[in-house]
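Hey L., structure's done. Input below.
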Amino acid sequence: MKKLTTFCASATLLAGLIAGTANAEQFIAADDTIETELCMAIARDNSFNLRKTMQERRVTLRVVKNVLACNNMATDKFIAKYGFKNSAHSLNLDFNTKTHIKDLSARNEVSKTIVVSGS
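Output:
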C-alpha cells in the first residue's frame, strides 16, 4: 500500500511538471556579446543571476533599463512580453499599472525556441 501511494504521488508530480513546462519558451543566445549576455540574464528570470552578470560586466542599472535593447525591444517591453517578474523586480520595474490584452483563443505552441540578441 505504501509503494502504491508513493508511485501515485510520483506520477502526479511528474505529470504536473510536464504540464507546467509544455508551453515553456526556450531562449538561446544569438552571439557572445555583453549585451546578449545581459539579455540572457534577464531571460533566465533570476534576480541574483541578473545582478551578478551586471556586476561582473560593470554595467549599471540605468544602462540596463534605458540603453540596453533585447531583440530590438526596450528592456521593459522585453520583460513585459515574456513575463519575467523576477527580472522586473530586480530592475525596479513595476508592471502592476499596465493593461495587457491577451487573445485567449490564440493557438499556443507546444515548445518555442527564441533567439535572444542584445544591442
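The CA atoms of residues 23 and 110 lie 5 Å apart. Confidence is low (pLDDT under 50) at residues 4-23.

-- N.
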